[in-house]
Amino acid sequence: MSQNKTNRFMPLWLALCIVIGVLIGVFITNHFSGNRLNIINNGSSRLSNLLHIIDDQYVDSVNIDELVEKALPQILAELDPHSVYISAKEVQMATDDLKGSFSGIGVEFTIREDTIHIQNVIKDGPADKAGMLAGDKIVSVDDKPFVGEIVTNEEAMHRLKGPKDSRVKIGIKRFGEKNVKYFTLTRGDIITKSVSATYMLDETTGYMRIKNFGENTHGEMLASLTNLTVQGANNLVIDLRDNTGGYLDSAVRMLEEFLKQNQLIVYTEGRKSPRKEYRCHGKGKYQNIPLVVLINESSASAAEIFAGAIQDNDRGTIVGRRSFGKGLVQQQIQFPDGSMIRLTIARYYTPSGRCIQKPFKPGDRADYELDMLARYQHGEFFYQDSIKHTGPAYHTSNGRTVYGGGGITPDIFIAEDTSNITSYYKEAAMSGLILQYAFKYTDENRQKLSQFTEMKPLSNYLKGLGLVEDFAGYAEKNGLRRRNNLIRKSNGLLQTYIHSRIIYNILDDQAWSEFLNQDDKMIKAALEVFRKGESFPKKK
Fold it and tell me: Same domain for 182 and 302?
């Protein structure tokens, strides 16, 4: 009887056990590892359902693609300051500078008064071969007017760049001529350089300015080093000021020329990205050349990796001001329509273990973007003891103390010179009036100025022209009230700025760098380091 009862209730017990097992499984799933996936699925389902409902039921017709295009940046903005969405239209522009070449007509331009003004014609490019000149104003593209509000940097790039061997018709107005001139150009490969200046600072010291870390930067650097060695360079200054970074691999290859075998260059690590180390192969030809690296508050990312590796390995002296603090690693993920996201997957760490990234609050980009202003107001640009280190102390290979908390703090601090800055100078510079005046002056005097092929003769010629007074008159006509006492106080700064832009317009980046470096305090500090034989820092 008892056995029969047991047999009769066995299916019921089995069913009950299965139900209890399912409930336990659901509980575990919802409270442990599967819960995150469930949340993601629920979130994505809600988003997908919302778009479907809007498309199906909203009172007016809606461009869903456009809605998604606007939503994606907002979603990524909640993560960190460097996870971004790049539209298909912007992808090409975002990668051209780092690739080292693109297909176009071969001009550098500035937009002034809703018109493209050609600033420089790249030698042997399509525009140069066709006879276009610096100073020409582009007024039409493919027989369609291109002036007015439609003229933006993005739209200009879109119209002037294009597939190699494609043709484009450009209409230009030339100074002193009434009629529009037309040129039909065949787009070609245009080479862009990362090393923008290479020359000798004195008989034994070479100088190299690197504006970003692109695909070809390592090769350009080697060519520059060879050039400087031939000229007798026994010391080297690498200028990374205002260098906003680029490719990690490029920075690593360049550092391998200066560091010794197996020295750590940088490592990356993230929640889903195991620690990855980059070490030197030890085959570099410049492991022993005395080295100074210049940085400032606009040096970021790969530039900070370079400076951090040199500093932590006690390979050279870092001179300048604390760098930007961009130490997040992005992975590019492309969508089928050509757009992409750059998603942060790890952080960069210097050889001593410092995280390069400065602190940030997820979703709060406003404070992050105002960090430079906060540093300025706090006095960090002017006083070394105003630098706030939020991270712990670390030590270089020789035992010197360095600090984390964001950016690379230089070994030798050089304050920003504000002694002759006035409110007049600030307004003249920030309003763009100095740039506009310099370009206008260059245009109107191009024939005379073009006779100069070197920086020093052109600089000496400009000194005798009294251009500051001429600028003050131009600025007053364009809304900047003349203030004679302030103009006198800032006379040297105004003259330097005006002359530097005219030199850039007529010559090139290298001439511009040479001119500005003549009285540069960081350059002087670098030369003093070599004079004292202190380019390989030791523990003090």
Answer: no
Give the pairing type, strands 115-121 and 137-141.
antiparallel
Query: Which residue is associated with the tokens 């005379």?
Result: 448
Q: Which amino acid is at 187?
A: R
Marked catalytic residue, from 83, 224, 250, 301 = 301
DSSP string covering 224-287, please?
HHHHHHHTT-SEEEEE-TT---B-HHHHHHHHTTTSPTT-EEEEEE-SSS--EEEE--S--S-S
* Catalytic residue flag (residue 45): no
Task: List Cα–Cα distances, 523 to 6, 144, 209, 508, 513, in angstroms.
Answer: 95, 48, 12, 20, 11
Helix axes 423-430, 433-444, angle to 10 degrees: 70
Q: Pick from 380, 364, 273: which is nearest to 324 by CA?
A: 380
Our count of domains for the chain comes to 4
From the list 137, 173, 211, 326, the catalytic residue is 326
Active site residue 301: yes
Catalytic residue selected from 80, 96, 312, 443: 312
Model-level pTM?
A: 0.81
User: For residue 66, what are the contacts with CB-CB under 8 A and spacing of at least 6?
Assistant: none
312 is catalytic: yes
pLDDT, tens digit, for every residue of 426-473? 999 888 788 889 988 998 898 899 999 999 999 999 998 999 999 999
Closest CA to 139 of 117, 172, 161: 172
Q: Which of 121, 139, 138 is nearest to 130 (CA)?
A: 121
Residue 114 and residue 70 share a domain: no
Q: Are residues 181 and 264 in the same domain?
A: no
Q: What percent of the chain has pLDDT over 70?
A: 87
Segments forming the whole domain that contains residue 48: 38-77
